[in-house]
Amino acid sequence: MPAVDNILFSRRRAERFAQLLDEANGGRRHHVRSRVDDELAPLVAVGQRIVAERPAVEVDPEFRTGLRAMLLATAEREGLGTPAAATADAGDQRATAGTRNSLLPAVTARRARARGAILIGVAAGAIAVSGISAASENAMPGDALYGMKRGTERAQLALASSDVSRGQLFLDFARTRLAEAAELRGDHAGFSAVLDDMDADTRQGVRLLTGAAVQRADAASLDAVNTFVAGQRRAVGDLLDGANRTDRERTRESLALLDAARERSDALRTALGCGLPAPVASDSLGPAPDTCPADR
Asked: Which residues of the chain fall below pLDDT 70?
């Protein structure tokens, strides 16, 4: 039964890793030695470094609350923390199924401990990563933590629950790229690259929000587009001050994109107001509506 052996061995490795990590961080020593200790030693060392070298930043309280809720839900789903009496009753019922099933209570207990160890590891890792993410918030292109900053943005998108949430996140990222561009004036290659990313985020955000407006026949998400464009256009216009000719030309491209986004939002708002059917045509800014009959 090689498959079963591999599963049990993996669980034992997880349990042993949890023991070693606990010992390394000052927990109770188990006074046992396993043949996998040497293999797990590098992972234990990484765990110690995460604890010892985590950035001195505060974790967002909302992140802590969300992480706690996720862990509690996972623990409930996986059966962790089940009362002993319930476990015993379940074990008695399984024991009546035959000799082969008599091992299941012990296996289940080991599985619960292994899952518990994994949950603890995930929690510790998530909190440590969140600290690094907070430390990377002000990272600029070329900085060591800039990749972490962009990775955190991708994670936020992956966790977003709707197109409206994702669209608003993209617009937030466009604002972040603008702040980076302001710091890179004079470095044409870096400045232009960041504006490229900013425009890409703008298109993605506008496309998702205009699409949501059409899908829901509700102009509410268009308000987010208009608010974004109004503030972003003023800030992008500030980049023109003192800029050289090349950077001014590149900046004007971003201004033209913002103007097009506002025009698309206004056209969709008008189309929704006069009851036009959902547009068939679309482009990088989302649905492209026809004009209302009265405007033709």
From this structure: 1-12, 25-32, 46-136, 294-296
Question: What is the model's pLDDT at position 84?
Answer: 46
Residue 3: per-residue pLDDT: 46
Burial state string for 61-100 with b = 16 or more CB within 10 A and e = fewer than 16: eeeeeebeeebeeebeeeebeeeeeeeeeebeeeeeeeee
Instruction: Report yes or no: 176 and 127 within 8 Å, Cβ to Cβ.
Output: no
162: Cβ contacts below 8 Å, ≥ 6 apart? 212
Query: What is the reported pLDDT for 127?
Result: 46
CB atoms within 10 A of CB 117: 19
**What pLDDT is recorded for position 106?**
55
3-state secondary structure the chain: CHHHHHHHHHHHHHHHHHHHHHHHCCCCCCCCCCCCHHHHHHHHHHHHHHHHHCCCCCCCHHHHHHHHHHHHHHHHHHCCCCCHHHHHHHHHHHHCCCCHHHHHHHHHHHHHHHHHHHHHHHHHHHHHHHHHHHHCCCCCCCCCCHHHHHHHHHHHHHHCCCHHHHHHHHHHHHHHHHHHHHHCCCCHHHHHHHHHHHHHHHHHHHHHHHHHHHHHCCCHHHHHHHHHHHHHHHHHHHCCCCCCHHHHHHHHHHHHHHHHHHHHHHHHHHHHHCCCCCCCCEECCEECCCCCHHHC
> What whole-number distance in Å separates Cα of residue 272 and Cα of residue 268?
6
